[in-house]
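Cysteine desulfurase
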Amino acid sequence: MATAVPTTPALDDLRADFPALDQEVRPGVRLTYLDNAATTLKPWPVIRAVQAFDAEYPANVHRGIHTLSERATEAYESAREKVARFIGAAEVEEVVWTRGTTEAINLIAQSWGRTFLKEGDEIVLSDLEHHANLIPWQMLAKERGVVLRFAEISDDGRLEPEAVERVLSDRTRVVAVTAMSNVLGTVVPLEPIVAMAHDRGAIVVVDGAQGVPHRAIDVGRLPVDFLAFSGHKMCGPTGIGVLYGRRELLEAMPPAWGGGSMVLRVSREGAEWNELPYKFEPGTPPIAQAIGLGAAVDYLSRLDSEAVASHERSLMEYAHRRLAEVGGVRILGPEPEYKGGILGMDVEGVHPHDLAQLLDRHGVAVRAGQHCAMPLHHRLGLPATARASAYLYNTTDDFDRLAEAIADARRLLHDRRPRRPA
């Protein structure tokens, strides 16, 4: 039975699973980690799983006829099965390993897109999209004469189904949207969007980099055609990601890259491709990383996903109230009921990069910049933003420290401003 995300003091026990939290970033300054949208911390079970592979059975997979290779293959393919169950995939062969969300979406664009899209076809996106779910489609559009259309977001950063419906047409072939904005935390209502796209005969590509770690996405219940996400944003290692695709779509797609492992037979004249999912996985795969992701899925599967979402929503509600007390902080995006654990901020009189540096003096780790989402920042009318992002191990104390550090930064910069002569 899944357990809920514990509350204090039990939350302290969960936090103890993450050794990075137990440190001072400089003498007397303890870490407050609020950069989870960039990458999450890793719990001991994940760290130990990767260490065990490196120390005990660091062999290549699939073709080795010896004990270490067989053990590595079993752990590697077991991780794929865990991921398939975690997202509700009907078949394990529908799970393709990639280096991350970016590579997964590029694979869709380069393989499915080049094969099935033609001049005049349309792809629907939104201004919430990360560059990973924009640039591959831009490249394809230039190459094939495909048209990109954009669903408008509301002033508070929400993407309403009606906005998507307004840009759908008889030429729409792909609807590619994020499950959750990495800048604003906006949770996108995928169910009606998927239904509308399918009614038009279009496929749906979901960027789940932020969505999968924070909101359960069951592809058996939500019939998306492709889902891409990254291991390192859900307690797993870097360098490993997942492309889920419906079998019939993957079967119809040619490989995007050539090399070993993705072939059955090769002659001087040509090659016969391997079965799913291996025809998309050339070369030596990310073995340790996949095993680590399997351990991360085990860890997350023991928690109640609805409780994780509720915990993050409570943190966002607290953060909104707490930062309102500070003053001079504009919180970007929708109200907590419409967002995940991401807090985009514009602090009056403080450049986001300066803010991040000043917060670091207090041990508070946040992200500053455009977060690989330049069109969204153009829509917001801001050159950059600061972003604090929460995960299952964060507490209200973390946001108290954030608020105190922001207040201190504003005082510091205000005191340094030159004063007009009397």
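thats it. The chain is about 40% helix and 15% strand. Residues 369 and 384 are 5 Å apart (CA to CA). bye
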